[in-house]
Design a protein that fits this description.
CATH topology of the largest domain: Jelly Rolls
Structural class: alpha+beta
Strand content: 15-25%
Oligomer: single chain
CATH architecture of the largest domain: Sandwich
CATH class of the largest domain: Mainly Beta
Number of strands: 9
Order of helices and strands: EEEEEEEEHEHHHHHHHHHH
Number of helices: 11
Distance between the termini: 56 Å
CATH superfamily of the largest domain: Regulatory protein AraC
Length: 304
Amino acid sequence: MQLNDSSQHEELYTGEHCLLVEVEKLARRDFFRTGAGTSRLGGPHADDHAHAILYVRRGVLKMRVDGRAYAAPAGHVMIIHPGELHMPAEPESMIEPCEVDWLVVSLRRGKLAAQWSDEETSGLVSSFERISVRNFTVSRLVGGYFEQLLAEHRKTQPYGKSAAQWLLRLLLLQLIRDCREQPRLRERNSRSRSRLIRRALRWMDRRLMEHFTIREVARAMGRSVTHFHRRFLSEVGITPAAYLAERRVQEAKVMLTEGSLSVTDIAFALGFSSSQYFATVFKKHVGVTPTEYRRQLVGAESRG
């Protein structure tokens, strides 16, 4: 089923038009043609039991998820987990041009591939559900799997359902692998960033142990806060504050592993306003508090 109008092109498959029971929606949306007020993204909503996987082919996709703004440039995937409230980050009349492949999938429904055992399917689903990064760089294989999934839906072909099952499984596997290989993929992607953003990233990385505000970063780069925030979000995919929190959590993990500093000392050393706020940010990124993380490390060493 394909929907077309003068402002937006949408290729959309839902319900009985989907080949797989676990797929609730498969779409390709071209917002390069969207004019003021014509977007049909709608208001804030959440999928109770399904993941949304958004692959950006062109432009920059800007979304607000659980009240936080994210931007995914071309070649990135954005993942929205069940129950997360999401909506466009900007008013519909201001949506930037972008082309997005959009998959909404309920991983606890269907079999993904009838030939695979329940244990293998469960392992794949659990690994995907543990992805905590909102958006990240992906390999070209991801775009290829999306294209093939859409192709299977465009025209009825022999064994189309079986092909779609394998393509969905391959897509999920590749996303898991790409998420784990972010250092290499980020390095490849960083070469395409502007000189301004590369300078800003180096400036912040060298001052993780110092106290500074994003306003100070913008001033050091010779830009207004608004301009700097917009450029950073578009090129990196997260806000400057979110990037700084992510890097400081990475550094905190090293300090918790290698040093003897208390959790409170680490919090203040890395610029957090309190140990409670540090614990909140750390748990959001890692899944456990700093104290629990250190306890797990000690337990693992004693068992080894």
